[in-house]
Amino acid sequence: MPGISLRTVYMTLADLTDMREIEVLSVDGGAARFDSNTDDHHHVLCCECGNVEDVYVGGVSDLEVVGLDGFTPSTTSIVFHGICRECAASST
Ligand SMILES: [Zn+2]
Ligand SMILES: [Zn+2]
Questions:
Q1: What is the distance in A from the centroid of ligand 1 to the CA of 63?
Q2: N or C: which end of the chain has fewer CB within 10 A?
Q3: How far away, in angstroms, is 25 Cα from ligand 2 center?
Q4: Does any domain span residue 85?
């Protein structure tokens, strides 16, 4: 997100923690996000508004991964980047 400082991002996330019970969750390997869902699940991330929603993905343990030799994953987190319903609706 060009033009938005990291500090602003973290302040926004801090605001979010006030809204519900949360867990810290890393999306995109960088920014900390918060999640109240402790199920084994994955996420969709809206590139327009930054909204993150939970999704459930089947067959994750059977994924064919190149370059994972010698690495033992403990958890797998899948993030689908795109445009959320609200942003898609408001852009038309
Ligand atoms: Zn959106
Ligand atoms: Zn989640």
A1: 28
A2: C
A3: 8
A4: yes
Range of the domain at 75: 6-58+71-90
In a domain, 64, yes or no: no
User: pTM higher than 0.70, yes or no?
Assistant: no
CATH code, 30? 3.30.1490
Ligand 2 centre and the CA of 61: distance in Å? 18
User: Residue 40 carries which DSSP code?
Assistant: S
For residue 51, give the ligand nearest its CA.
1
| Ligand 2 center from residue 57 Cα (angstroms) | 12
| Residue 58 backbone dihedrals phi, psi, to 5 degrees | -85, 155
- Which tens digits make up the pLDDT trace of 19-78? 444 445 555 555 556 677 777 888 899 999 988 888 998 888 788 889 988 988 887 888
